[in-house]
Amino acid sequence: MAKTILFSTILILFLSACGVLNTPQKKLGVEAPPSVIEQPLLRLKSPLQLTDDLTKFDGQIGLYARNLKTNQMLHYNQDMIFPTASTHKLVVATAIYKYIYPEASLTEKQHYDENIKQMMIISDNPAFYDLLNIIEQKQPDALTRVLNDLKLVNTRIHSREAFMKYGYHSVTTPYEMSLIFETIYNETYLGKEFSSILKEELGNTIFHEEIPRFLQGKKVLHKVGELPGVQCDVGIIDDGQDLILISIYTKTHHPLPYASNFIAEISAKAYNLLRTSNP
């Protein structure tokens, strides 16, 4: 894949924000990408330097970032397939709230709430597997329905097909995981009650080494993921003026600090390039 970075301004004519597709499908067709006005972003001081930084990463790296208020964006390998690592917990939490929670008893709801809290704040794996088992027992197609609803054509969660093709049971792209996070933030899919719960938890995670590291004083909601050789983070930076969405995924043979440091540095640079006020 040619490593190029696209800087563009998108004018969204209709903000339906991830409309729901109610007819289950086994696999969705890939939709045409949105039209893009190909012109330099205003206020971008050194986009080429960011390109150079990304190309220097020793491994695979994908980035999708957008100012949710101006719709200015930048991306690099945004459609490359990566293991989700723990970011798949966002999809599991969404599936529970969308398709399992409404029919649950009060005791079950309390159990789901606590597991989701543990997944979002400390990325607890036993809580994840417990909820995954509940989905398989109560509504096995819930995860697929969420992916279809949100029109995520490359994301697979706990999928045998993904494992056969990629060697991981859960895969996504930087762009598609950004859509999941934005949908939670905008409260468009789950509604205000459940989205607010998730946003509160994502804003209080114990992890501060990736996107938030060099953004002290900014409110950051995010979900990290980590596997051997895999590091990723997806989140939104709220500085009181702008909302900057960042989704970044990496694969490398280097020890963990290498990718973690890279994600922190690239996130800070992407934020500064997309914010409307000068650093």
Unreliable runs, pLDDT <50, ≥5 residues?
A: 1-46
Q: Could you give the order of the helices and strands?
A: EHEEEHHHHHEHHEEEH
Fraction of residues in H or I helices: 25-40%
Alpha-carbon Rg, integer: 18 Å
Return the CATH class.
Alpha Beta
Helical segment count: 9
Largest sheet: 6 strands, antiparallel
CATH architecture: 3-Layer(aba) Sandwich
Structural class: alpha+beta
The rounded distance between the terminal residues' Cα atoms is 33 Å
Instruction: Give the overall silhouette.
Output: globular
Short descriptors:
single chain; 8 strands; alpha+beta; 279 residues; two-stranded antiparallel sheet; Beta-lactamase; disordered N terminus; globular
Protein model, in words:
By secondary structure, the chain is α+β, with helices and mostly antiparallel strands. The chain has one domain (46-274): Beta-lactamase (3-Layer(aba) Sandwich), CATH 3.40.710.10. The protein has nine helices and eight strands. The strands form two sheets. It has a six-stranded antiparallel β-sheet, sandwiched between helices. Mean pLDDT is 85; it is low at 1-46.
Summed up:
The chain is of the alpha+beta class and 279 residues long. Helix content is 40%, strand content 17%.
Describe the SSE topology.
Layout: E1 6-9, H1 47-55, E2 60-67, E3 72-76, E4 82-83, H2 88-100, H3 106-122, H4 125-138, H5 142-149, H6 160-166, E5 171-172, H7 174-186, H8 192-202, E6 219-227, E7 230-238, E8 243-251, H9 256-274
Antiparallel strand pairs: 1-3, 2-3, 2-8, 4-5, 6-7, 7-8
